[in-house]
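Deliverable D2.4 — example input (structure tokens):
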């Protein structure tokens, strides 16, 4: 049995696909419940930053050419261009056009935060994420984002196969289908990792990881955005 302390060994926060085209009101692939997770995300980000632990973002990008993804998410076709890199649209809760694949403003990356661009569901498939985590000495992940049973779950399963101890944060993941979210959390805890709410995870982090002034700086440039393109 892995003790709670080991579950947060050299941790990083992995935020999956909290992008305008999923989170903003009226978005093509809107997940309304994602907006309810923003406060939990902010608390987690603050806790990880205080301890100089990596905060890593993923972006789901649609291919501009026909792919299997178009079959299950027709919003990604040229008529709508959901999550097309560089495409802008105005949302019901925005006063001006936003880059549709960008991270939402409420939890926007800071300079130096890695951003993993992916053309599929999982954060590891076809990307340099695993290599980057190993290079940073990361041993465990706190996993958040949207959609729980699609990109979040796929990323969590991949993390398991890459050997990263992973905790899915129950109130920082979101879905358009509550039954599928509940089933995903139950199944993930049974075979792939752990689940906990953000308050429990922040409390554990405070008990197990020393604040920034007692840690060495991580090897990510402080004045530049690091993008890992899949």
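Example output (designed residues):
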């Amino acid at each position: 049995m892995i003790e709670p302390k080991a579950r947060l060994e050299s941790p990083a926060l992995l935020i999956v696909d909290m992008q305008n085209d999923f989170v903003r009101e009226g978005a093509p692939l809107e997940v309304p419940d994602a907006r309810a997770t923003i406060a939990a995300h902010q608390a987690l980000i603050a806790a990880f930053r205080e301890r100089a632990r990596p905060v890593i973002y993923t972006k789901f990008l649609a291919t501009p050419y026909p792919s299997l993804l178009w079959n299950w998410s027709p919003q990604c076709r040229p008529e709508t261009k959901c999550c097309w890199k560089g495409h802008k649209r105005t949302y019901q809760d925005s006063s001006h056009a936003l880059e549709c694949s960008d991270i939402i403003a409420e939890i926007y990356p800071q300079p130096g935060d890695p951003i993993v661009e992916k053309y599929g569901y999982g954060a590891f498939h076809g990307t340099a994420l695993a290599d980057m985590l190993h290079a940073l000495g990361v041993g465990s992940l706190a996993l958040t984002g949207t959609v729980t049973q699609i990109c979040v779950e796929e990323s969590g399963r991949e993390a398991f196969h890459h050997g990263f101890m992973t905790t899915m944060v129950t109130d920082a993941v979101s879905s358009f289908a509550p039954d599928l979210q509940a089933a995903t959390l139950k199944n993930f805890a049974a075979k792939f990792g752990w689940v906990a709410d953000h308050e429990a995870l922040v409390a554990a982090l405070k008990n197990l990881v020393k604040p920034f002034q007692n840690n060495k700086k991580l090897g990510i440039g402080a004045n530049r955005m690091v993008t890992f393109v899949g």
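Helices lie at 4-7, 20-23, 38-50, 68-72, 129-135, 148-161, 178-191, 198-208.
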